[in-house]
Amino acid sequence: MVATLGASRTLLLPGRPASLRLLTSTTTPYRTTLRASSTFPSRQKPPSKHSTTPGQPPTMPYSTTPSPPHGKYTYHLAASYIAKSRPFDPQTHLFQFNPYNRLQTQPKPGSKRPKSSRPESGQDAFFISQLGPSASSGEVALGVADGVGGWMDSGVDPADFSHAFCDYMASTASTSTPPPTARQLMQAGYEAVCHDQSIKAGGSTAIVGLLKSNGKLEVANLGDSGFILLRLNGVHASSEPQTHAFNTPYQLSVVPPSMLLRAAAFGGAQLMDQPRDAEVIRHGLKHGDVVVFASDGLWDNLFEGDILRIVSEVMKRSGAWRLNGERGCVVEEDLTSVTETKEGVTLQGMLATEIVRQAKLASMDPKLDGPFAKEVKKYYPHEVWRGGKEDDICVVVAVVEEEGAPVKAKL
Fold it and tell me: Where is this region: Disordered (predicted)?
């Protein structure tokens, strides 16, 4: 299977030699894996597809030096989503996280939800869960998984992998003592999927985040889902996609033996990246920060500058961020008034739904070129691709609040 320009991402790398060697993991209970004897392309990060305007200084998304925390941090989270074939309804396609309402956030420990109870997010899946058995800690785990659409050519529903993967991670996050790291949580979810006999095949990208009570964010990212950290009307950090080739992201996979045998006989290599391949990123958070996790349905249709504009408009309209003369943009000291539910509306909910709404509109716009269109022109200059890219869209938003934080300004 070669790289295509449609919404479905590819499973196989083109042009791989037929000679394959058998590798059996000695450290994990994964199913037996075949890999090509030649190496995959260099895993250097490609240039960012999320840049805003030419000549703009790039952000530094890999800073690992957090600011010293002043007090306990709490997080206000919501998710919004929509399958590419469905119209978006901001009231229906919204999940408001409440750590004390366990039934809404995850299935029973060690299990996954039936298909009928999945959110209407298509092949995209997400989870938000308390981190550790005690909800009072305020620590949260979250993540997004994007099922690889190329599996449909083999008669496999990519949503089965991505949704089960997120369900297993949610269960692990809420019950494990001590709490896992972001990469360990990804590993646990992947192992559970590999042992799930109802999932014969499939794959997905994955981004997993941990929000700690000391104001630290830890992210494990594998593939082309990603996150952006917005602070005081600016982009403070963002992730870079991991890809083997154009439209071929890193991906976790369950591959049936028959497919491995065909690859051995006819050439090609099945992509089977591992959680250890995920890039781990750490940041210190501040009062008033907004963290956005999302599938490529967002990143392929909106630039970082677009997301910053949307978030800034909502934050300023709510009063969470406000202009204060010479002090510039400042954060409201008490965010509780805007993050708590008022007639079913919260700041985090408004942020999530507005981001998804505008990404959905951009995906269906045949004239306005988004990041994906620019990538096509870069890698395939003779191809004609105009407008957005219709795809499933899944967004998880966290608003950061520090207890007793002073008003902070961007000078």
Answer: 23-69, 100-123
Tell me the H-state helices in 59-157.
102-105
State the amino acid at position 209 in one-letter form.
G
Query: Which phi and psi angles does 61 have, rounded to 5°?
Result: -75, -5
pTM (2 d.p.): 0.82
Q: Please tell me the predicted confidence (pLDDT) of residue 98.
A: 84
Residue 287 to residues 62, 120, 179, 196, Cα–Cα distance (Å): 20, 32, 24, 41
Task: Give DSSP secondary structure letters for 169-230.
Answer: HHHHHHH-SSPPPHHHHHHHHHHHHHH-TT--SEEE-EEEEEE-TTSEEEEEEESS-EEEEE
* Beta bridge pairs of residue 36: 20
Q: Is the peptide bond before 14 cis (omega within 30 degrees of 0)?
A: no
Q: Express each pLDDT in 115-167 by its tens digit.
A: 778 899 999 999 999 999 887 788 999 999 999 988 888 889 999 999 999 99
Query: Cβ(266)–Cβ(27) under 8 Å?
Result: no
Count how many Cα atoms sit within 13 Å of the Cα of residue 80 in the half-sphere of its side chain: 25
**Residue position matching structure tokens 């790291």:** 181
Q: What angle do CA 242, 352, 151 make, to 5 degrees?
A: 40
Range 35-42, long-range pairs (CB < 8 A, 24+ positions)? 35/269, 35/270, 35/272, 36/268, 36/269, 40/13, 40/244, 40/269, 41/13, 41/244, 41/245
Residues 229-235, mean pLDDT to the nearest whole number = 94
Do 49 and 299 contact (CB within 8 A), yes or no? yes
Question: Could you read off the pLDDT of 350-365 as tens digits, one per residue?
Answer: 999 999 999 999 999 9
